[in-house]
């Protein structure tokens, strides 16, 4: 599926069922604030590493660790809602409260997937942070390319492993291992559209982080970067809402295949 076609169909769905987009647009603003905060923390960590200020790095850890569980809970509940909303949409009736109750009833399965996803992202983030620190310290283009390569590979693998995991576990209630096996199978089958969209928005995040670091998170250039990032995130919210409905629907249509 071409990216332009996905965007057109996403906008058409927005006009037809605006209620579907409320959870994703609301969480977009939360994620935007968190990602900007995370970018600033990463920048400060790199500067502290250059100065050898280990104590300062430790001081940044508690607020970051405290925010992660909340972000994870919102993320998994939202995706859990869309698995239910997809089934409702196919029946021609959409209830956000019913979708939320359904997602909450599957909280154990959503928690398992969320923790696994968080550990995966943390590993990729840690490795890329180390190579990025190498770039900041040496200014070697090689470190920058390695950082970009690790990030892109992480996005691809993450998309293939986890994109269908929530609809599988919410709509069918499989075990964690069975869920991941089924999600990976569906992810590989629809890899072109899933990976392309995830890579595009990962590049948007990466570029925004670079703008922030280059401007030291100050000034008009940084403000312009934030505005462009927010516009991109809103477009992402529309497209991802569409994909969050299409993905479970695709799963529902294909679940008889195995």
Describe the protein in words.
- There is one protein chain.
- By secondary structure, this protein is an all-alpha fold.
- The protein has one domain (3-251).
- It has helices at residues 3-16, 22-51, 54-91, 96-105, 107-138, 141-162, 165-172, 176-189, 191-214, 219-254.
- The protein starts with a helix and ends with a helix.
- The relative contact order is 0.14.
- The model has no long low-confidence stretch (mean pLDDT 80).
SSE layout and pairings?
Layout: H1 3-16, H2 22-51, H3 54-91, H4 96-105, H5 107-138, H6 141-162, H7 165-172, H8 176-189, H9 191-214, H10 219-254
Helix pairs in contact: 1-10, 2-3, 2-5, 2-9, 2-10, 3-4, 3-5, 3-7, 3-10, 5-6, 6-8, 6-9, 7-8, 7-10, 9-10
The residue-averaged pLDDT reads: 80
Report the radius of gyration as a whole number of Å: 19 Å
Catalogue the unreliable spans: none
Number of strands: 0
What would the principal axes of the Cα set say about the shape? globular
Count of separate DSSP helical elements: 10
Question: Helix and strand succession?
Answer: HHHHHHHHHH
Major beta sheet summary: none
Query: What is the number of domains?
Result: 1
- Identify the quaternary structure here: single chain
Helix percentage range: over 70%
Q: Which structural class do the helices and strands define?
A: mainly alpha
How much of the sequence lies in strands comes to: under 5%
CA-CA gap between termini: 23 Å
């Amino acid at each position: 599926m071409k990216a332009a076609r996905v965007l057109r169909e996403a906008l058409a769905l927005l006009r037809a069922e605006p209620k579907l987009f409320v959870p994703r647009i609301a969480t977009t603003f939360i994620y935007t604030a968190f990602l900007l905060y995370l970018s600033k923390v990463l920048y400060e960590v790199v500067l502290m590493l250059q100065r050898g200020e280990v104590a300062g790095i430790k001081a940044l850890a508690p607020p970051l660790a405290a925010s992660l569980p909340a972000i994870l809970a919102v993320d998994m509940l939202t995706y859990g809602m869309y698995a239910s909303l997809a089934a409702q949409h196919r029946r021609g009736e959409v209830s956000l409260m019913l979708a939320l109750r359904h997602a909450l009833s599957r909280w154990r399965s959503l928690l398992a997937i969320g923790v696994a996803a968080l550990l995966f992202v943390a590993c990729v983030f840690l490795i890329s942070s180390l190579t990025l620190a190498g770039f900041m310290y040496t200014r070697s283009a090689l470190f920058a390319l390695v950082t970009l390569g690790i990030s892109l590979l992480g996005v691809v693998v993450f998309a293939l492993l986890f994109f269908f995991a929530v609809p599988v576990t919410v709509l069918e209630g499989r075990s964690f291992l069975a869920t991941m096996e089924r999600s990976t199978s569906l992810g590989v089958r629809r890899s072109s559209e899933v990976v392309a969209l995830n890579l595009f928005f990962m590049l948007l995040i990466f570029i925004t982080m670079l703008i922030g670091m280059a401007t030291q998170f100050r000034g008009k250039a940084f403000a312009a970067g934030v505005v462009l990032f927010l516009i991109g995130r809103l477009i992402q919210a529309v497209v991802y809402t569409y994909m969050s409905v299409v993905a479970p629907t695709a799963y529902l249509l294909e679940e008889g295949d195995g």
